């Protein structure tokens, strides 16, 4: 859509057999992310993993989180090496925001799946912003990445509970702080970026919050 690419549902299927690759989560993580790169390149020839502006990685075991993050960094480094001689030199590309989420089940009993949004832009010219808010009982961290064309942006907000119990904190106050942080991040986008929120994804621990409470809030 315009200069934004949406790629979802990449798991580690072997193309000629359409069966999951063997070798466990490491092999699956590498192959499925390679699929992502090839889909992006097929859609736009000069687009690669470092053009991703936001990535959601789904795993079925919390032990797979470090594996997903490691493969993500490794593939991005490989992209940078390929591009180094052509454009990067000593500059650093601003890569997309990654969220790794534990879910109970994935299609074909896969161990990992990738869902990304990429921008056909210049990663060297992207804008990046980060801030943090510490309150009694919780901490909020926020990051945003804006494409160099200002056609799209990704904002990630993470809530960490410092207290073991949320009962005395009051969910309304926390949600108010989250919304305030989002508005602050949106206000910091450049004047050229007149984008409207396209989608919100909320990932949470079931034993801490429930979906109905969050929706009402």
From TrEMBL:
Entry keywords, A to Z: Ligase
CDD domains, A to Z: eu_AANH_C_2
InterPro entries registered for this protein in UniProt: DPH6/MJ0570, RutC-like_sf, YjgF/YER057c/UK114
Domain of life: Eukaryota
Protein name, UniProt field: DPH6 ligase
GO molecular function term, any single one: diphthine-ammonia ligase activity
Family matches, as Gene3D superfamilies: RutC-like
One GO BP: protein histidyl modification to diphthamide
UniProt-listed Pfam families: Ribonuc_L-PSP
Membrane-spanning parts: none
């Amino acid at each position: 859509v315009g200069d934004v690419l949406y790629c979802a549902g990449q798991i580690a299927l072997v193309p000629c057999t359409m069966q999951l690759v063997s070798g466990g989560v490491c092999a699956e993580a590498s192959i499925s992310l390679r699929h992502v790169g090839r889909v992006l390149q097929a859609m736009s020839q000069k687009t690669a993993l470092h053009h991703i502006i936001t990535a959601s990685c789904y795993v079925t075991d919390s032990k797979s989180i470090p594996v997903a993050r490691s493969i993500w960094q490794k593939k991005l480094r490989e992209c940078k090496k390929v591009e180094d001689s052509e454009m990067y030199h000593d500059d650093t590309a601003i890569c997309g925001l990654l969220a790794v989420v534990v879910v109970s089940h994935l299609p074909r009993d896969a161990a990992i799946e990738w869902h990304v949004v990429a921008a056909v832009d210049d990663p060297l010219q992207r804008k990046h912003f980060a801030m943090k808010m510490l309150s009694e009982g919780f901490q909020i961290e926020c990051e945003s990445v804006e494409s160099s064309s200002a056609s799209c942006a990704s904002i990630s907000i993470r809530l960490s509970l410092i207290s073991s119990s949320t009962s005395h904190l009051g969910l309304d106050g926390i949600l108010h702080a989250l919304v305030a942080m989002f508005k602050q991040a949106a206000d910091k986008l450049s004047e050229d970026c007149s984008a409207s929120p396209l989608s919100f994804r909320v990932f949470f621990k079931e034993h801490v919050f429930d979906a109905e409470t969050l929706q009402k809030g």
